[in-house]
Amino acid sequence: NAGVTQTPKFRILKIGQSMTLQCTQDMNHNYMYWYRQDPGMGLKLIYYSVGAGITDKGEVPNGYNVSRSTTEDFPLRLELAAPSQTSVYFCASRRLAGGPEDTQYFGPGTRLTVL
Amino acid sequence: GESVGLHLPTLSVQEGDNSIINCAYSNSASDYFIWYKQESGKGPQFIIDIRSNMDKRQGQRVTVLLNKTVKHLSLQIAATQPGDSAVYFCAETYSSASKIIFGSGTRLSIRP
Question: How far is A62 from chain B (nearest CA, A)?
Fold first, then answer.
């Protein structure tokens, strides 16, 4: 299994531009998450999904949108990029909660800079 | 409210010594705890987990201890090696929860 993959690895945006961060997992996990991590800080939850067609807001959803049309894919959309969105974005997936191992598996991250 | 925090933001350890990273949590309903390791430029990686029906769990060179009375867990790394240099996060959740709550992280640095 490839696990959780994210594209692109790096991106520079101008203020006001939009982009989609891609995330795919091949583990048939039903739960998927998007986090952002600012320099020297912990992980903040942006959005999450408990299954195809279901999404919910996390701690810091403003300025972002998500969709979950398939089990495998969970793209994150930035509509009007702002400098405050400069961060590293991590996607994660997780098997159904309550199983023997409920941990999340993380992708390698997308480093986004907004100038 | 719910929170998971760490007592020490940075920890410097002599190579070969044991490392102990601490974490406090406040949600008494949490019943599943996870430690992650994040190396520079990479995503967090699972190290070890523990459920609330246990107070100790051992892996390869790592041990997690859970004290539910004081809502505290710790990660012990035996014979710390240069490759252990990273930021370590504790995280908590409970069985019916979708979200996993992360602590702020501790940076572990190894002195030669």
Answer: 18
